[in-house]
Amino acid sequence: QLQLVQSGGGLVQFGGSLTLSCAASGFSVTTYPMSWYRQTPWKERELVAFISGSGDRTNFPGSMKGRLTISRDGAKNTVYLQMASLKPEDTAVYYCYTPTYGRWGEGTQVTIYS
After folding, report:
1. How far is CA 40 from CA 43, 90, 101, in A?
2. Tens-digit pLDDT profile for residues 66-85
């Protein structure tokens, strides 16, 4: 059964760092592209990070560019989103997503306080 299970959200102080995890089952994250999105009550869900299936191409559209790293661990079949220099405006629910299968993780809340 195809599933994405997220972990790693929480409350972080301004300027801090956080790593989100997305454990996949039913397919290999080192074969297919993966994405991370975020959403607030005031905006549509927006793409923040993308990694290609081969892993040789990444993209970070939006305001978090330069503060994000997306990576994969084939042995754990998990995708990670490392976030640094976090700001209060980064507060959102973050979702992982498999474009190939059109499946979302359950989302994880990230809250940045100053």
Report:
1. 5, 9, 24
2. 999 999 999 999 999 999 99
